[in-house]
Amino acid sequence: MKLPFGPGALVTAAFIGPGTVTACTLAGANFGYALLWALVFATAATIILQEMSARLGVVTGKGLGEALMAGAGNPALKFAVAALVVVALALGNAAYQAGNLTGAALGGEALMGAGAVDRRVVVGALALIAGLFLLSGSYKLLERVLIGLVILMSLAFAGSVLVTRPDPAALIGGLVPRVPEGGLFTAIALIGTTIVPYNLFLHASAARERWGGAGESALRDAQRDTQVSVGLGGLISIFILVTAAASLFASGLTIRSGADLAAAIEPAYGPLARHLVGTGLLAAGLSSAITAPLAAAYAVCELTRQPPRGAVFRGVALAVLAVGTTIALLGFNPLTVILTAQVANGILLPAVAIFLLIAMNRRSLLGTHVNTPVQNVLGGFVLLVTIGLGARLILRAAGVWP
């Protein structure tokens, strides 16, 4: 049986990384099931934007970077757009890559036991694995690997939910929108880790490679893939939050990350629970360690009109991986780079969302596949959310917002 997954699985593999695992863990540990609704909203909003991005790639045969540059107008504006994308995606993903590799290594430690293997060895091995896949030059191979990692995450975190046996009534109650005292920043973090700008570039490029110019049936496949893949990603996030809520809420334990969740639930639920969470965290870190360089390479090549899978593509991807690996191995503090990337992402996220909405209404570009009125209304609402998320990233980088 053919699985209903494709380029959308790359998006899921990208946003279910150690950062999302940590945000969902903290939400469940500190607020129980109360913020489940935020993940449901974030998943729906992501599907809306990612469907537009995939449709752009399928119908036009262009990546989002190409379309962005074509619509930028004068050369000065094109240069500004290119610079913003490079800072936000290439530089930012290089800094975040350290967290992806370290998070994956922590998952490995949860499986093997802390101290069983030097963490630097695990980081180096994971970086080598990611590098080999990026060097392969095969889109089909990357897609299959990432689909496999998404399925592995799904099974691991679904298993952790079954082991911890959550309260069904409390779980359903968490679907009612409300913000518990002190929970606003966590709710924003849950949404912000799901709706990310580089996934819009990644999805359009991947959809173009898989289906570009292939007709109506390909467009239907792309839309179904987006709904299933991103929907599954949202479900994985919910599994993580529910596991933390069922096992840690009101426990009084200090939890900082998904690795802490793996260690904390073992005394009550046994080694199986630790192994399930560790497996999920390892898969989340490795999948993001592959997709972050991939997204940066796609965006840079489109902006510079270089062919995908060429020397520039591989060079950018490996440079992002190398910088992240160096930071993770040597313990450098990438705070300045991350803050710069957060400001750039804070500007880029709403800017790209605005451009995407404009592009999706251009008949000269999409013909009969332009947005419907309902899609425009939904997209406009999500745009308002992205403006708020962008403002939060900028204010947080400036030290104004925690």
Gist of the model:
The protein has 402 residues and is mostly helical. The chain has helices at 8-15, 18-31, 36-60, 64-70, 75-112, 119-135, 139-164, 168-173, 184-192, 197-211, 216-248, 258-264, 266-269, 271-303, 311-330, 335-359, 363-366, 373-397.
List the helices and strands and how they pair.
Elements: H1 8-15, H2 18-31, H3 36-60, H4 64-70, H5 75-112, H6 119-135, H7 139-164, H8 168-173, H9 184-192, H10 197-211, H11 216-248, H12 258-264, H13 266-269, H14 271-303, H15 311-330, H16 335-359, H17 363-366, H18 373-397
What CATH first level would be assigned?
Mainly Alpha
Distance between the termini: 47 Å
Q: Can you identify the CATH superfamily?
A: Amino acid/polyamine transporter I
How many domains, as an integer?
Answer: 1
